[in-house]
Design a protein that fits this description.
With about 260 residues, the chain is an alpha+beta fold. About 25% of the residues lie in helices and about 30% in strands. Helix 1 packs across helix 2 and helix 5 crosses helix 6. The radius of gyration is 20 Å and the shape is globular.
């Protein structure tokens, strides 16, 4: 099928999943609510759905700028409402004078419960407050079992989604030219190191693309890819514009401050 030509081989299983969802909704006339999708998966779903006249779809992660979102695919005559995404906001507080918690601490505690990452949306940790956007179907499980993060005792309670904290994270954007869209080249450019060192990080499993470890230095990045380097934070390839006369790529990247 032509759709596969536009995406990476390792993304084909997810493409198959979206095609199965689409076909099932068309055949059964029953909507499909997905788990949380990362930005790359959202792009794939949008591409596959296209302008299908028989179906409608939508995304929500609880806030306008949410990174991770659930999707709904439905027959074209249905109206998708915000409540249909079955999202729950969970809040816990901790004494930030004595304990420092970060995003990775909360995510690590959640993963230790044995629940799929796909059941969890965005996390916000700041000013002694932890906010978790989760699928409503696992909110009770989280409240009962996620009682400690690092050395902090926590007690999660449900809050109205309108009270979701706006993250204070800021991203710095940079326009530059690169010789190729290889992972080692972009890692070098984004994180300010030699290409050799960037390659060593990749081969050592320190680099993730769209939350998946990639150890191939020649892996080609595409617009919207989220990159993270262990100990150095997250970044994103925002746009690939055109090529220069010397065949270099003009790109826009952003880095989490």
């Amino acid at each position: 099928m032509e759709i596969y030509q536009h995406f990476r081989k390792e993304e084909h299983p997810f493409i198959d999943q979206v095609l199965a969802w689409r076909d099932d909704v068309e055949m059964r006339y029953q909507r499909k609510l997905t788990d949380f999708l990362n930005p790359r998966e959202q792009l794939i779903l949008q591409t596959i759905m296209g302008n299908n006249p028989d179906l409608v779809y939508g995304f929500s992660g609880g806030a306008e700028g949410a990174e991770r979102k659930r999707a709904i695919i439905a027959p074209e005559y249905e109206i998708i409402e915000q409540d249909d995404f079955q999202l729950t906001l969970l809040e816990a507080t901790y004494a930030d004078k004595f304990i420092t918690l970060e995003h990775r601490d909360v995510l690590g505690a959640f993963m230790s419960l044995g629940v799929k990452r796909e059941k969890l949306g965005d996390l916000v940790v700041q000013d002694g407050v932890v906010h978790i956007v989760a699928g409503a179907e696992i909110s009770d499980f989280i409240k009962m079992n996620l009682t400690g993060i690092k050395k902090a005792n926590v007690d999660f309670i449900e809050k109205p989604m309108a009270e979701l904290m706006e993250s204070k994270e800021t991203w710095s954007t940079k326009e530059t030219t690169v010789s190729s869209l290889r992972l080692d080249v972009l890692t070098k450019e984004i994180y300010g190191m030699s290409r050799k060192k960037a390659g060593m990080h990749v081969e050592a499993g320190h680099v993730k693309v769209n939350h998946r470890v990639v150890e191939d230095t020649s892996f080609l990045l595409e617009e919207g890819d989220l990159i993270s380097l262990k100990g150095k934070g997250r970044s994103r390839l925002e746009e690939v514009r055109d090529q220069t006369k010397k065949d270099k790529f003009r790109v826009t990247t952003s880095t989490l401050n």
